[in-house]
Each structure stands twice: as structure tokens, then as C-alpha cells.
From TrEMBL:
Record organism: Lacicoccus qingdaonensis
Top-level taxonomy: Bacteria, Bacillati, Bacillota, Bacilli, Bacillales
Superkingdom to which the source organism belongs: Bacteria
Name recorded for this polypeptide: Cxxc_20_cxxc protein
Keyword Membrane: yes
Keywords recorded for this protein, A-Z: Membrane, Transmembrane, Transmembrane helix
Keyword field contains Transmembrane helix: yes
Residue spans crossing the bilayer: 28-51, 57-76
Length: 89
């Protein structure tokens, strides 16, 4: 999951079966919505709260940590896609 959090929307190799899997479309939509909401909170809502700088930085760090360690593991679902690619020969 941490690899997905750092580089979303890419295929990864399944640790069990060693095949490549990709995040499902719903997971990508949830990820976009979460990133937009997080950006709005960090860049618009928190500055307008007029909190001390240390509190604002701490609050921002907590929001980012919640996104990486709670939201992504609970919402990302992977799916094996079959692109019907023809084999040469």
C-alpha cells in the first residue's frame, strides 16, 4: 500500500501470484476525490482557521498521515485486467 500511496494509479506486482494488477476504477476515483479534499483542507481551510504555525503544520501532517495510512489501505481495491492482447506467432 505504501508503494501505491507514493505512486498512485500504477500497476504493481502481486506478492502472492507475481502477476501484475492495477487499481480498480472506483479506487482511482476515490483517490482523486481524497486528494482534492486534502488539498482544499491544507491550502484553503487550515490557513483561514488562523491557528498558530506549529498547530497548522501538525494538523496538516495528521491529515496527510491519515490519507496515506488509513484512507488508502481501506479504499484501494486491485483488479487483474485482461487486455486481450494477441501473442505473437
Amino acid at each position: 500500500m505504501l508503494g501505491y500511496a507514493l505512486k498512485p494509479r500504477t500497476r504493481i506486482k502481486c506478492p502472492d501470484c507475481k502477476e501484475y494488477i492495477e487499481p480498480a476504477t472506483v479506487s482511482i476515483i476515490f483517490d482523486y476525490v481524497a486528494v482534492i479534499v486534502l488539498a482544499l483542507l491544507v491550502f484553503i481551510v487550515i490557513p483561514f482557521m488562523h491557528l498558530p504555525v506549529a498547530t497548522s503544520v501538525l494538523f496538516t501532517g495528521v491529515l496527510i498521515a491519515l490519507y496515506i495510512f488509513l484512507f488508502i489501505p481501506l479504499t484501494v481495491k486491485f483488479k487483474k485486467y485482461d487486455y486481450n492482447m494477441k501473442t505473437p506467432g
